[in-house]
Design brief:
about 15% strand, 12 strands, about 45% helix, 4-stranded parallel beta sheet, binds calcium ion, 13 helices, Rossmann fold, alpha/beta, binds beta-D-galactopyranose
Length: about 350
């Protein structure tokens, strides 16, 4: 009898405790500080991984309003107005137009909101115009240098890639969005690194494929019909375009025994890793989506909670108020390093 009473008491107490516990902010969602996040366009292969990392990292910490700017800067400006009306505490902005930072900064200033730009680096003058603006990205030149070194090493290790035997590397280059710091720096430093390494080059073609697989394939189709076997190297500013070039070459009967054309990309997205594994891409440069997404949320979380931007974090800011996540060369030897960053 006594025991039953105790069991009953314990039961009642436990139940009432549970019943009295207020819903945690994580459960109710709305009690978490709000952050307005833009992605320049959802239909960008690499950015879809950054988006995934941002969502994962924010879970239980921040109430994200995450929108697709659909590659339209005017639309993005309106989306930012909407965030401000909604009462978000922080803006996390992947610009459509890297030159449009000042328009966003003007809005942020009026509302006294901190802004974390990411992936498309604003001009230094825009960053300097607002003490509550920060940037999360990479050091763009580094990706070009690493890609160039990879091309140089592979070229030197494979004398048969110089198909016409003239000692010159005849290349085509698929460029990302013109004016995008990553596209400009990758183009410049990839080629410069090869030349500085003592290999002569000849540019057969250089055009923008706007980071896009289908555009990369179309350009490559045209270039193959124009130059055919004269193409000895395909340099792509990102993997999406590298994969488009690969599809084009395969359709034209290349990439089989004796008809190999080396292709090198940047990002090390999972689809590219699979092709490196098959021996169809020479390599890529890891653009660490996981850590860039994490850094965006780490900074935004501090700012949304009124803390110092770097409080309790291991990230460092350079003189441009930027967190720069390092790149890494990825080849057959270290595919796992890239897989980890993409949560594979
Ligand atoms: C680059 C990336 C590209 C593309 C671009 C979008 O860092 O390498 O694949 O996603 O960002 O701004
Ligand atoms: Ca040659």
């Amino acid at each position: 009898m006594k025991r039953t009473l105790i069991v009953l008491l314990v039961f009642v107490m436990t139940f009432s405790l549970v019943a009295c516990t207020p819903a945690t902010p994580a459960e109710s969602g709305s009690e978490l500080p709000g952050v307005g996040v833009t992605i320049y366009k959802f239909d960008d292969n690499f950015m879809s991984f950054v988006r995934g990392a941002i969502q994962r990292e924010a879970e239980g910490k921040l109430d994200l309003t995450l929108v697709d700017s659909a590659n339209d800067q005017a639309k993005q400006n309106e989306q930012v107005d909407g965030f401000i009306q909604k009462g978000v505490k922080v803006l996390a902005i992947n610009l459509v137009d890297p030159q449009a930072a000042s328009a966003i900064i003007e809005k942020a200033k009026v509302a006294d909101l901190p802004v974390v730009f990411y992936n498309k680096e604003p001009d230094q003058s825009a960053m300097d115009s607002y003490d509550k603006a920060w940037y999360v990205g990479t050091r763009s030149a580094e990706s070009g240098e690493i890609q160039g070194q990879m091309i140089l090493d592979a070229w030197n290790a494979n004398p048969d890639w110089d198909k016409n035997g003239d000692g010159v590397m005849q290349y085509v280059l698929l460029k990302g969005e013109p004016g995008h710091p990553d596209a400009e720096a990758r183009t410049k430093y990839a080629v410069e690194t090869v030349v500085n390494g003592g290999v002569q080059v000849e540019e057969l073609e250089l055009q923008t494929g706007m980071w896009d697989t289908a555009k990369g394939k179309d350009l490559m189709d045209t270039w193959i019909s124009k130059h055919g076997d004269a193409i000895e190297m395909v340099i792509a500013n990102n993997d999406a375009m590298a994969l488009g070039a690969l599809t084009s070459l395969e359709a034209a009967g290349y990439m089989v025994e004796g008809k190999f054309v080396p292709i090198v990309g940047v990002d090390a997205i999972p689809d590219a890793l699979a092709k490196i594994e098959e021996g169809k891409l020479v390599g890529s440069v890891l653009n660490d989506a996981g850590n860039q997404g994490k850094a965006v949320i780490d900074l935004a979380n501090n700012l949304a909670n009124g803390k110092d931007v770097l409080e309790g974090l291991d990230w460092t800011l350079d003189e441009a108020k930027a967190v720069r996540v390092p790149y890494k060369a990825i080849t057959l030897d270290n595919l796992d390093d890239a897989k980890a960053s993409y949560g594979q």
